Structures are given as C-alpha cells and as structure tokens.
Known about the structure:
mainly alpha, DNA polymerase, domain 1, 61% helix
Amino acid sequence: MNPDDRLKRLRFRAWHRGTKEADILIGGYFDRHSLRWDDAQIKWFEALLQEEDVEIMAWAIGTEAPPIRYEGPMMCDLQALDYIKHPE
C-alpha cells in the first residue's frame, strides 16, 4: 500500500474508534506524532489499533501497565497526554 494511503487509513481508524474519548486520545496521538513515524513505528500503531479502546485508554492514563510488546518511546508519547486538545 502506498505510504500516504496507509497513513490516511490509519488516521481514519484512529479518529473513528466508537467513543468520543477514544477518538480524542488515539486520534490526537496520531495527529501529533504520525508525520515522523518510520515503518516500524507505523506497524506498532497498526498493532495498537487492534486492541480494545478501554485497554489503550487504561495504558495511556496509567491505570493498567501496557503489555511488554507496547512498551517503549511510543507508549511514553501516548502516556504524555500532551496532544489532547481541550475545548475552550
């Protein structure tokens, strides 16, 4: 798949999770970080999108430890939560 099409597909999946909270968390993370991802990082995110939203959200806010396969710099970026835009 063309890299641009791959990212467009991932963006759609990140922003259409099923709940507003998950959309903001996962979609916001994608928007903030995806432009600098290499192929391995894209694969990490693709795998993450296969997980349940409640799991991803728990890992992001720290109420559950993420599985070892997700530990690392990208999970740290997800856990920073500095990409979430709050309505004014």
